[in-house]
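Thread: "does anyone have the structure for this chain?"

Original post by V.I.:
We have the sequence but no experimental structure in hand. Need at least a predicted one for the grant figures.
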Amino acid sequence: MVIVKLLVNVDVYRGMTLKAGEEYVMAGGVMQQLQKMYPGSLHQTRNFEDEYRHIQLNNLKSTDKICMFRSGGIGDIMFMLPLMKHLKEKYGVSISVGTSPMYTDILENNPHVDEVFQMPFNVSYIENSDYHIKFEGIIEDASEKSQILHAVDLFLEHSGVDFTTVSSDDKCPKLFLGDS
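Reply from O.Q.:
Generated one for you, tokens below.
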């Protein structure tokens, strides 16, 4: 993930324009695509990892705001759902979630999610949060754990949760549908 400052307005998706002068968090691949489409329009300003605090469960308070994000496919978003439920029910924190525009509907009616936003996103989402959880690269690495553990367990463990203490039923992703 990189933090990029826009030098001109950039259309990313239909209905989504990134504004000149503002900073956005985006995956490196998205940045490369935008650089090809809009040469000279963006400038990487900071390294994301150096800037923000990854979640620390032993410090969580019910007043804390957690920003989590994953740009991957629908399954990747589903793997996050048990963690959201765990954090909301055990700690009572506020949870905002960013993902690709095509997957935001999966999260819209989830009672464990307080806010949903599209990626790439304005850096203010993280700046206004106490902690963040970035899920990019968790299931893609070649570590032994990623080869033997279920993705839900990998996501829980990445966030500091002892996945062996979470029941099998609570590891099952649950969707919440709206009225329409």
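V.I.: this helps a lot. The beta strands are 2-6, 10-13, 16-18, 23-26, 42-47, 65-69, 94-99, 115-118, 121-122, 131-134.
O.Q.: and The mean pLDDT is 89.
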